[in-house]
Design goal:
The complex is a heterodimer of chains A (284) and B (313).
Chain A lengths: L5 H25 L1 E2 L1 H18 L14 E4 L5 H11 L39 H14 L6 E6 L6 H12 L5 E7 L2 E2 L2 E2 H4 L5 H7 L3 E6 L3 H8 L10 E6 L18 E2 L2 H19 L2
Parallel strand pairs in A: 2-3, 3-4, 4-8, 7-8
Antiparallel strand pairs in A: 1-9, 5-6
Helix pairs in contact in A: 1-2, 1-3, 1-9, 2-3, 2-8, 4-5
Chain B lengths: L5 E2 L1 H15 L3 E5 L9 H6 L4 E3 L6 H11 L3 E7 L8 H10 L5 E5 L17 H5 L6 E3 L4 H13 L4 E4 L5 E2 L14 E4 L4 E5 L4 H13 L4 E5 L2 E3 L3 H11 L2 E8 L4 H12 L4 E6 L9 H7 L4 H12 L2
Parallel strand pairs in B: 2-3, 2-4, 4-5, 5-7, 6-7, 10-11, 10-13, 13-14
Antiparallel strand pairs in B: 1-8, 6-12, 9-11
Helix pairs in contact in B: 1-6, 3-4, 7-11, 8-9
Classes of the chains: A alpha/beta (284), B alpha/beta (313).
């Protein structure tokens, strides 16, 4: 298990702030987007790309790379923000979000922008694709890992449970799933819309090794995600407790910001909120 | 009628899969239960580490195939036709089509070949729905020789493919010199009064119908239009111009199948009188296979009658 130093934690938090600034940059370009889930998963995806995953922005198709699958494709603002920050593409492209034929569609397209591994958006597809990747790199004898971010609302899709069974049956212990449990989906609290409880017991019953963390705590994210497989021969899963729209004072934990139609006043406030985070980080 | 050798299409597919498996080490086989029924037993025996079983998991298996393809593997997925087309349609569309993955899906026991098991197991819309997906090749081979050649061709082709095969034994109509090419129809017999375009499990019914019609003095051009997508536009227009009438024969709904694909070309390029033989808008009945085909006018003598009336001779 990797143990982050205090300096490394601070460094990652600064990266995550820049990622949130990139998300806001895209929202400013299009005036709307699925910001809620992007901001709940932003810390996880930042930690993956900046501390955990073996990737090379100059060689995005490197066969021995680790893979990232954003099963909840609508959170792609976070993925684009991280890929741009990591140098997979020029940041100016962020300003095209929402424009005609933009290389950054509202759900990711692997043929439009380097670093995107799958075309997700329809929910319940990512885990089986990730399972196939995990099987493929294992056949090749690579120690590559496959990391997946799923939404908690997405868990109502039955196809996820097909994939959960198959990953476990084929003993894919090179896969790590984060369930971004922000507890909200478009029409309300997830457990009221369609309960997934008991969440941990469900995954364990499907043969997964499960841990639970604070999905905004860099130390918890990295220390656990660098420790896979949690159990040899089993796929690993982290239930990451998160806050929807994390970082925006007016939108945090509010269901109506699942898809944010941003007013000029809100954008101004969002900038103030991110500046405040920056000030806090500067003070250590 | 001459004597023909009959071969099991699934067994033939299975033999071809071993052949291409030897040629391409990237090929892996994925089954959703009943791998033996899909002809995969010889592949499993020969390459146990390259065969993966997924049980009755027809959505998941398509996603896994897509993920495997991203690592350079060439997955062949075979299972009962409706369960790898209608059921996981969105996975086929997004994970294979939209992601342009090099995955080959084989739907077996297609059409009404699962006759007595009824409409849940019939597949009369597979061509219609899969050919709406951009970039997916759709093939319905007409005899065992063609099945083998198709398997070799799709292993070489880069991109998603759907192949439908039946289950009853099929007569061997072609010899080893028969040339299959993706996207090309084959004129099996030339003629001037009418063109019959047939595919798949009932291609041989059209073939024998053409013989009956010849004996009645009607000159039939017989075309095997095994690739429904991309369709051979050039040949369709050529036949329309040269014979003036087109008949399509398929074990599929009239909505969206070969007949529709041909009509789409002719409506735009060269409007021509057509007759479409297939199954109309209904859930097919159940019973012995050959009797069922007769119920829908797909036996050779029935096809010959329909064509004769259409030609007006």
């Amino acid at each position: 298990m990797y143990k982050l130093t205090n300096e490394e934690v601070l460094e990652l938090e600064k990266e995550a702030l820049q990622v949130r600034r990139n998300v806001l940059r895209m929202i400013k370009a299009s005036k709307a987007g699925h910001a809620g889930g992007a901001l709940s998963s932003a810390d996880i995806i930042t930690a993956l790309y900046f501390k955990i995953m073996r990737v090379d922005p100059k060689n995005p198709k490197w066969p021995q790379r680790d893979r990232f699958v954003l099963s909840a494709g609508h959170k792609c603002l976070a993925l684009y923000a991280v890929l741009a920050e990591k140098g997979f593409f020029e940041k100016e492209i962020l300003d095209t979000y929402g424009k005609l034929k933009s290389r950054l569609p509202g759900h990711p397209d692997m043929y439009k922008i380097p670093g995107v591994e799958t075309n997700t958006g329809a929910l319940g597809h990512g885990l089986s694709i990730a399972g196939g990747m995990a099987l493929g790199v294992r056949m090749d004898g690579y120690d590559s890992k496959v990391y997946v971010v799923m939404g908690d609302g997405e868990l109502a899709e039955g196809s996820n449970w097909e994939a959960a069974a198959a990953c476990s049956h084929h003993k894919l212990d090179n896969i790590l799933v984060f369930v971004d449990r922000n507890r909200l989906q478009i029409s309300g609290p997830t457990v009221k819309v369609m309960s997934y409880e008991p969440l941990r017991a469900r995954w364990e019953a499907f043969g997964w090794s499960v841990r639970e963390i604070d999905g905004h705590n860099m130390r918890e994210i990295v220390d656990n995600a660098t420790d896979i497989p949690f159990e040899k021969g089993k796929p690993s899963l982290i239930i990451a407790n998160t806050i929807k729209s994390k970082g925006l004072s007016f939108a945090e934990d509010k269901v109506n910001y699942h898809y944010w139609k941003a007013t000029p006043e809100e954008i101004e406030q969002a900038e103030k909120d991110l500046n405040e985070i920056e000030r806090r980080l500067a003070n250590g | 009628m001459a004597e023909y050798e009959y071969k099991d299409p699934r067994k033939t597919f299975g033999e071809a899969l071993v052949e291409v498996g030897e040629k391409y080490p990237e090929i892996v086989a994925l089954s959703a239960d009943s791998s033996k029924g899909s002809g995969m037993a010889p592949f499993h025996e020969k390459f146990p580490d390259r065969h993966f079983e997924f049980g009755i998991m027809e959505q998941g298996v398509i996603g896994f195939a897509s993920g495997l393809a991203t690592t350079g593997k060439i997955p062949f997925v075979a299972a009962i036709a409706p369960f790898v087309t209608a059921r996981p349609f969105e996975m086929f569309r997004n994970d294979l089509g939209y992601m342009r993955q090099n995955v080959k899906v084989v739907g077996r026991c297609a059409g009404i070949t699962y006759s007595d098991l009824g409409p849940t197991h019939h597949s009369l819309e597979d061509v219609a729905i899969i050919r709406t997906i951009p970039g997916v090749v759709v093939i319905s081979p007409g005899d065992p020789v063609e099945i083998k050649k198709v398997v070799h061709a799709i292993a070489e082709h880069k991109g998603p493919v759907y192949v439908k095969i039946g289950s009853p034994k099929m007569p061997v109509l072609f010899d080893e010199n028969y040339k299959f090419e993706i996207g090309k129809g084959v004129v099996v017999k030339d003629g001037t009064d009418v063109t019959i375009m047939g595919i798949g499990t009932v291609f041989h019914k059209a073939y024998f119908a053409a013989e009956i019609l010849e004996n009645k003095g009607i000159s039939v051009r017989l075309v095997n239009m095994a690739t429904v997508k991309p369709i051979d536009k050039e040949l369709i227009v050529k036949c329309a111009k040269e014979t003036g009438k087109i008949v399509t024969v398929e074990e599929h709904y009239l909505i969206g199948g070969l007949g529709s694909a041909v009509a789409e070309v002719l409506a735009r390029e060269h409007p021509t009188p057509m007759k479409m033989i297939g199954i109309d808008d209904q859930f097919a009945s159940n019973g012995p296979y050959e009797e069922l085909l007769g119920l829908y006018g797909l036996q050779s003598d029935q096809i010959a009658d329909t064509v004769q009336k259409f030609v007006g001779k």
